[in-house]
Amino acid sequence: MDKKFVCTFEGCGASFPHHSNLVVHVKGKHEKLRPFACQHPDCGRKFLFASNLRVHERIHSGERPYSCGVCGKAFIQRGQAKLHESKHAVEVVKPQYVPSDGLREHLDDRERAMLEKVRNMIESAQLKL
């Protein structure tokens, strides 16, 4: 798609595919418009959009509505949780059949070594996170 909406502020020249993108750019970059202010004491950060303020307020409230489906670590933004989740390199899949004698007897030596390696990788990843 052509970027047919060009910013006319001196020295800028940024271009956008939609007029609304240009309007947001001008208000945010050139007019420094930030009508939504954080009311938390000693903060005062301001935002162009109310949605950005709502996400920011989670820093003060401690709310972390998004969690990693692998380890359960919680995040303020969905994108943070998804990025974190993608860093779990290995998925541990439960075997469909586990004999009553337990998992160790079910696995041969190679499978047991691989399982131990996976456990170590997960533990190592959790310590870094």
Architecture overview:
It is built from five helices and six strands. With 129 residues, it is mainly alpha-helical. Among the domains are: 33 residues; 30 residues, Double Stranded RNA Binding Domain (2-Layer Sandwich). It has a two-stranded antiparallel sheet with strand order 1-2. About 4% of the residues have low confidence.
Number of helices: 5
SSE class: mainly alpha
Mean pLDDT: 81
Radius of gyration: 24 Å
**For the report, how would you describe the main beta sheet?**
2 strands, antiparallel
The amount of helix comes to: 40-55%
Low-confidence stretches: 92-96
Task: Kindly report how far apart the N and C termini lie.
Answer: 39 Å
Question: Approximately how much beta-strand content do the residues carry?
Answer: 5-15%
Topology readout:
Layout: E1 5-6, E2 15-16, H1 19-30, E3 36-37, E4 46-47, H2 50-61, E5 66-67, E6 74-75, H3 78-86, H4 103-106, H5 109-128
Antiparallel strand pairs: 1-2, 3-4, 5-6
Summarize this structure briefly.
The protein is mostly helical. The protein contains five helices and six strands; from the N terminus they run ββαββαββααα. Among the domains are: 1-33; 34-63, Double Stranded RNA Binding Domain (2-Layer Sandwich).
Protein traits:
elongated, Double Stranded RNA Binding Domain, 5 helices, two-stranded antiparallel sheet, mainly alpha, 129 residues, 9% strand
